[in-house]
User: Fold these one by one.
Assistant:
Number 1:
Amino acid sequence: MGMCLGLATLSDANIERVLRDPPLVWCVVAPDDPEPFEEARAARQKPTLWSLLFGRRRQAAAAGGLELRPPEGAGTDLDKAWHGIHYLLTGTASAGDPPLDFLVAGGRAVGDIDVGYGPARVFTREQTRSACDALRAVTDEDLRARFDPADMLAKEIYPEIWDRAPEHDDTLGYLIENVQTLRRFLEQAVAQDLGMVVYLT
């Protein structure tokens, strides 16, 4: 199945809630599956004397999950193209200058909740706007010029398919198509004044 990168929109208010109460991230990452949230919540609610005496009301309030009001929670994924896109934006495997490194770095980690391949990361609406503005400045022609299969394989850019013959597997076209998906997602988030959650599953 491999590693796929997902993105979802979230308001700054709910970003703060998720950072304060990390199990809530499951309400964004897997909104149709309550089980991961319930398991994460249960794991964090091991009772202490203090919580038994004073914490029941707070825990009961938190147990209801995260209320997402449309258009919050709109999501997309970049399939397995995310690392190749990061390379086209930064020329690196895991570094690069912000904000164009946002697919693999930056934002704030949501506690220690492993949503697949480590914690999700959240970006405020201002950080999301910065990423969108930076991506607007990069044209598809720029991306095509930066496509270097030999360097990508040397840097172990996932999923290491970049030297396949274009007539059999158009890997550059695959990346450009997913960049378009990313552009649409960011533009929508900015238009709605929302931040985002970025995660690997």
Note: The beta strands are 5-10, 75-77, 108-109, 121-123, 195-200.
Number 2:
Amino acid sequence: MPTVLVVDDEAHIREVVSLYLTAAGYTVITAADGAECLEAFAAQPPDLVILDLMLPLADGAEVCGRIRAHSDVPVIMLTARASELDKVALLEAGADDYVVKPFGPAELVARVRAILRRAPGSGRQDQATDEDLHLGALRISPATWEVTVDGEVVPLTAREFDLLLVMARRPGVVFSRRQLLEASTGFDEFFQERGVDVHIRHLREKLGDEAGEPRFIETVRGVGYRVRKAEG
């Protein structure tokens, strides 16, 4: 069973979220602050982290950054800050998604399910999806969630991998932000188009793309993004 680490300094939130996740079939471990989170993460690496932004000792953005330093496990941030700038800041910190407080536990479980069903071995992939994609120096293996550039493994988050895979399956085709949301998340109403730009930028940085002369991901101004066709 997938394990979810729930981190919040409010006991009743931990209890309610744990109850709903357990009922949905997940194994749950909890932590009340940033230090406990990192200790629990090291002792029993989870399949996904639900992380509150406002934590004692170390805020959630800092904790997320420390997790991201050595792991690409999906992270969903909980926040009471609803402005676009605040949401973008969470994505910049490395979060895959965010939920604004107050929230419905069923909505949170839906987001957990949407992210985890994309994990290797989840049964989401069909035969066509399992086939490796080769685009010049870029290789994508949907079955193992592995991406390599020039033979070197490039670690990506779940959201980054999903966006890349959607575009790479149809190289040369331009996708709008809305199309990428609908094709990659399954919960486009939960995730703003501005977040696509953030994840694409992180994806480019990891792939070694230069803005002026991209090897893999091109911006089509006023329209969206596309993965370049392999030359030759």
Note: Residues 193-207 form the longest helix (15 residues).
Number 3:
Amino acid sequence: MSTNKKTFVITRFKNASGTVSWRLAGWIAGARIRKNFKSREEAAAEMAAREIGALQLTAGLRSQATYLNDAQLREAEDAFRRLESHRRSLLFYLDYALTNYREPEREKTLSATVSEYVAVKQKELESRLISKCQLRSISDELKVLQKNFPSGLITQFTPVMLTSYLGRGHPSLKTHNNRRGILSTFFKFAARNDWVVTNPVEKTPHYRINHRRGSAVTITAEISRNLMAYLENYENGNVVPYFSLCLFAGIRPSPKDGEVAKLRSDHIRLNTGVILIEPEVSKVRMKRLVTIQPNLAEWLQAYPFKPINSGYIEYHRSKISKRFNLTHDVLRHTFISMFVGKFRSMGEAALQAGNSESIIRKHYLDLKSTAEAEAFFGIMPKRTASAKLLTPALTVAA
């Protein structure tokens, strides 16, 4: 008999006792099958099952008892097919997923996540943990993110998507890293709230930048003298306090959110000869005392300081910067370089400016001669104060 013979037949069979049975007979995989049933229907059902079993054997399938339903069986078969080229077992990958994967507790849209994150950052601003400039950068970047992805969940983002997003417009490496830093903190916030499982930014490129900044851009003592002389006759001298603090004390100059924008009148203490920079005023959140040099004392007595109107100062600073070709931080850079030139102390310059000594050495050392620095700190106003405060002669030991 051929081992491939799988034909089944049902025949009527009369037993010795006189009863009638229905016999199923045939071959499957070289084995003979013969079985009696009380009715033809039972024999037909068995024949159908045997024929299915024969087909399964031919196709490499096997019939097994299982508690899985049809959908689960199909999924299990698909999983094994996908693992054919992998070395590990299905249980290995399942155990790994159960250990490392967490379902988000609830789904969250991108817009809702951004709203909650910005609200948290607003509270940090109110608690003086971040600056207005930082909040503005965060808000602006997340607005662009929403514009590029106007709908969908926070879980939609992948490293590939964010890599493309971060590279929009062919940014500089620094700009790319800044964008990446804002988004990384944003997705960490989402992960802490279980709105995403992992931070997709972690697998995006971060570029290492070799900083090769040269000497700071400054102006000469002569240009400083001409600038201050011009300001005395400009807007009735209203912008003189702003420019004198930035030029002769190195106060960070942004009228919107720089140190000068946060100064109060009681921070400037002419009677003791110092400007108190509180942590909430300082860019680096560290308190420092800036010595009021004798010429600055003259300027502040002739033109008393009042808390600045940021819009007014911003408008006039723009006009004056164009006239004298001034860059954003040039007044502060000039103060630091002149201070080092006069007193020859990088450590003291670092304390006065709120920088590290290494920064002073890299960018400000030997930019100005002692003679030019002396001329710079000798720039005095033409206007005299109506009632001068007693101000000590202030010097810094070299």
Note: Confidence is low (pLDDT under 50) at residues 1-5, 387-398.
